[in-house]
Amino acid sequence: MIARSFIRDLLHRVDIVAVVERHMPLKKAGANYVARCPFHNEKTPSFTVSPGKQFYHCFGCGAHGNAIDFVIEQTGMGFAEAVRDLAASVGMKVVEDKPDAPLRKRDDDVDLPALMLQAAQYYKSALKQSETAIAYLKKRGLTGEIAARFGIGYAPPGWQNLASIFSNYQDKALLATGLIKENEEGRRYDIFRDRIMFPIWNERGVIIGFGGRVLDSAASSGQAQEGPKYLNSPETPLFEKGRELYGLFQARKAIREAGKVVVVEGYMDVLALAQHGVGYAVATLGTATTAMHVQKLLRHTDNVVFCFDGDDAGRRAAWRALENSLPQITDGTNISFLFLPQGEDPDSFVRKNGREGFEKLLGEALPLSALLLRELSARVDLKSEEGRARFLQNAKPLLARITAPALGLMLRKRLAELAGVSQSELEALYRIKVEPRPQVPQKLARKTPSLARKILQLLLYQPQLAANFDAVLPDSPHIEFQALKQLLEFMGDDPHIQHSAVIIEWFRGTAHEALLREVGRELFMWEEKKLGDEDMAREFAGALDQLREMERNSKIDALRSKSERQELTSDEKRLYQQLLKREPAMVEDRKSNAV
Questions:
Q1: Cα separation values, 228 from 183, 191, 213, 240, 483, Å
Q2: Strands 261-264 and 27-29
Q3: What was the pLDDT predicted at 582?
Q4: Is the pTM of this model over 0.70?
Q5: Same fold flag, 112-232 and 248-365
Q6: 250 with 150: CB under 8 angstroms?
Q7: pLDDT tens digits for 375-434?
Q8: Distance CA 7, CA 69 (A)
Q9: What is the rounded distance in angstroms from the CA atom of residue 544 to the CA atom of residue 550?
Q10: Coil, strand, or helix at residue 162?
Q11: Between the ranges 408-417, 473-482, 536-545, 579-588, where is the mean pLDDT highest?
Q12: Mean per-residue pLDDT for 172-183?
């Protein structure tokens, strides 16, 4: 495990401009550099690199990150491999943590990805020692190359195998990984037992969860199957099923090269397709396709093909994917649906017909508009007035979700034709006001950030401001205040931080990573303001004044509440009067009722 302090020092040493220019040319544009984004097709440059913040950001597809993230995205390397590559480029020797060293400075800030990686390495090692598991994978036709590429492993039978690799099996951090559970008696046990293990990576190459499949050998030998056929990690600070896609990390390069992505339903489908040369396949993780899935896919390509079985379950899954795709579509986006022959899944089909046969079938996929019209028509009798009225009623909420102007227009025309009415009659009936989807960036649409978020933005934009933080944070459970508290603690431990990229990298894998990455994207808003050091200092001072006002109002409310229950002491009365003297007039009007 690479030492966190080394990663911090590495990001201080490398220059993200030089890192990006190893792969693509950049053009100077003011304080930043710009180029056409390497992660999606575009004609005008929307990819910006900030040397001051050591971040890249694409205003088109939303790609964002530091030098490590760029190397991972561009080359397909894993996190550790990308760190070693960057270290070699600046002549640094990678420093690793000792196995028994604490993973973080603070007990409440454990490196969960490091624990997940440790478990993945154990499962890979266990696979090599299990003839039964190896025989199962060979029976499914998987090669060692594919198994290694996707990190396939095996969780042996037994209730506490992970105790052999984690020195403290009772560590509370292990519960947060989703690898173990605790029963009512407080006894802990491994969640995954006697299963083929599929590590799940996020887009940055970090293992965030696992999928486990039972071996067919248990069923064939007459043994009772323990648990479901497929078992996914539970929701954790790292893992949210509705946001993640299996195989996306490995498929990114192939998606860019093919110009499309195929979405299938199972781990083995992804592996079989990859083995037969279809490397641009991903899978949902035991859930229906969500809007977040669609958003994530459309950041990588404008051509998404959902591949489902041809049975009723496959049709239902396709319809849910269609519904969640409608608000995400833009004119130029191509979302389509492929239904496999009865009794086939992508795994079995590609093994029988190879890459050529599968890709030929992909060419027959139904466009989203065709599927929508086909399904709506199949549910009613278009020969009767009642059926056509029902048809229009069913279509109305779906059309209302489409924000792509041209596609919405085309569908309204086709719906009118099928229903036997004119387009103007249909639009009058629906009373739909179609608004074009806002394009990025929309300066006027920005919401005013909360106070905590504004302070986070200021500290990340100019870390040296932390030295002037002298206000008291409210005891709030809100995630933004919790993140701000952790951020200030970290910056207090290391007052010489130069770049916001270093700060956000430190929080990789923690509960606050997603929020800080969001705030990191917002730093480009501050770039646009072109504020000088004095302006930033005034913004920060104003934010601290607001915090002090919150603290003062909190004290006033506490004293007022106490005074309603009992007599205040003389010191409390004196403090209360002092606080009220600085309070706005509206509070002065209430003070006579407080004491």
A1: 19, 12, 8, 19, 37
A2: unpaired
A3: 64
A4: no
A5: no
A6: yes
A7: 999 999 999 999 999 999 999 999 888 888 899 899 999 999 999 999 888 888 887 554
A8: 12
A9: 10
A10: helix
A11: 408-417
A12: 90
Closest CA to 301 of 348, 272, 262: 262
* pLDDT band per the 50, 70, 90 thresholds, residue 87: confident
pLDDT at residue number 576 = 74
SS3 (DSSP) at 324: helix
Taking the domain 4-89, which CATH number applies? 3.90.580.10
| Amino acid at site 460 | L
| Fold adopted by 112-232 | DNA primase DNAg catalytic core, N-terminal domain (3.90.980)
Residue located via tokens 């059309």 = 399
Whole-angstrom Cα distance, residue 353 to residue 347? 10
The helix (H) or strand (E) run that includes residue 538 is: helix 533-565
Cβ contact 559:580 at 8 Å: no
Asked if 196 and 216 touch (Cβ cutoff 8 Å), the reply is: no
What does the domain layout of the chain look like in residue ranges?
4-89, 112-232, 248-365, 379-430, 548-593
Tokens, residue 57:
């950001």
> Whole-angstrom Cα distance, residue 66 to residue 82?
12
pLDDT in tens, 306-344: 998 878 888 899 999 999 999 888 888 899 999 999 888
Q: Can you read off the two tokens belonging to residue 353?
A: 């017909």
CATH 3.40.1360.10 fits 248-365, yes or no: yes
Place of tokens 């944070």: 473
Element (H, E) at 200: strand 195-201
Predicted pLDDT at 349: 93
Cβ-proximal residues to 454 (8 Å cutoff; 6+ apart), any chain: 539, 543
Q: Both ends of the chain: CA-CA distance in Å?
A: 60
Pick the CATH number of 379-430 from 1.10.10, 1.10.8, 1.20.50, 3.40.50: 1.20.50
- 306 phi and psi angles, rounded to 5 deg: -90, 125
Residue type, 126: A
How confident is the prediction for the chain on average, in pLDDT?
A: 83
**Rounded mean pLDDT of 49-69?**
86
- Phi and psi dihedrals of 86, rounded to 5? -65, -40
